[in-house]
Amino acid sequence: MKLVIDANIPAAEHCFGHFGTLTRVPGREINAAHLRDADALIVRSITQVNDQLLADIPVRFIGTCTIGTDHIDQAALAQRNIAFSSAPGCNAEAVVDYVLSSLLTLAERDGWALSERTVGIVGVGNVGRRLQARLTAMGVATLACDPPREEEGAEEGFHSLDALIERCDVLCLHTPLTREGPHATYQLLNAQRIEELAPGCVLLNAGRGDCVDGLALRSRLAGKGDISAILDVWEEEPDIDAGLCDLVSLATPHIAGHSLDGKLRGTWMIQQALARHCGRPSGLTFADICPPPALASLHLQHALPPEDALRLCMRAVYDVRRDHDALQRQTQHHGMRKGFDDCRANYPLRREFATLNVQLSGEAVALEGLLRGAGFNVIRKLSEQ
């Protein structure tokens, strides 16, 4: 079996080497010529799998090591009888880490407290559901909007997007990209809705870039300048709008889910799917490919203001400012397209909050609920239990 695999997929040899011969190709460069004699294709989100790529190739299995699937023409795969698998939820925890790190960084910079804000979550799937659970456990008020799930009747308590815009101080988008149908998300936040955002509102998009009208957002930021934006996803990636990039409070190159844990989990999930497709046992567990963290534990002994304690623990694991600064630096030196892609291709090692054991003793024991709610593994020192 010959497998063509995105060069940026970690642990590919460990996960797929026993299936056959691996050919590693940068994701944006994968084309039909690479697939002329391939049996399987394993990608991430930047490879567009469409009719042009699929024409006259022998591939029988395609997997994407990502949550999103809007880069995959699944109808075209079905017409060609090509098996397909994605990795839903693989990096959802990492995206939530990104959101919390970003909001607490902006709160510190601009002088407000997350605990005093109401956060609106648009899209309550793998990411949105986890974000709402963590914020609730941290004592932060949330409102959720998800029309498809509301119609299914599986959950209660949903609100309209317009209600979130009216009632929330922070608006977080975590929707897939759909261009048609009653719940299309293409430019879900259009010019009218961007204009309706209240002064002081924070807009965070870690879903899909095309869900926000970038020109309208740039106009609001450049004109009134009375809202803040945190963008990890953009229209026209990697040729993103440099003017908009300069105006947002935190700009990152589509890396919200780029933890090592999330990437490895996605690789492992597709390895499992390919093994099922081939009718052979996997024989590989996630623990087999996930290394221990460089920083395993942190000990807090004295009282800290709650959000200062959160920032201290979060930045021990992940600091979003590093990614914002890297994008600014790389795009200034190499231009937008190359700089954006270089940041992704050379992304530094990053772990998830859950890999850090936070030991508490003395007055710091009072922080247990907050830190556990934020996603850390909290351990009381024996003398405090």
Biggest sheet layout: 6 strands, parallel
Please write the string of helix (H) and strand (E) elements.
EHEEHEHEHEHEHHEHEHEHEHHEHHHEHE
Q: Quote the distance from N terminus to C terminus.
A: 55 Å
Helix content, binned percent: 25-40%
Count of separate structural domains: 3
Q: Nearest-angstrom radius of gyration?
A: 21 Å
**Could you say which overall geometry the principal axes of the C-alpha atoms support?**
globular
Strand content: 5-15%
Looking at the structure, the CATH topology of the largest domain is: Rossmann fold
* Backbone structural class: alpha/beta
- The total strand number stands at 14
Overall mean confidence score, pLDDT: 95
**CATH class descriptor name of the largest domain:** Alpha Beta
Residue stretches low in confidence (pLDDT < 50, at least 5 long) are: none
Give the neighbour order of strands across the main sheet. 7-6-8-9-10-11
Which architecture name of the largest domain does CATH use? 3-Layer(aba) Sandwich
Helical stretch count?
Answer: 16
Under CATH, the homologous superfamily of the largest domain reads NAD(P)-binding Rossmann-like Domain
Keywords: Cytoplasm, NAD, Oxidoreductase, Pyridoxine biosynthesis
Binding site for substrate: 45, 66
Domain D-isomer specific 2-hydroxyacid dehydrogenase catalytic: 28-367
Subunit structure: Homodimer.
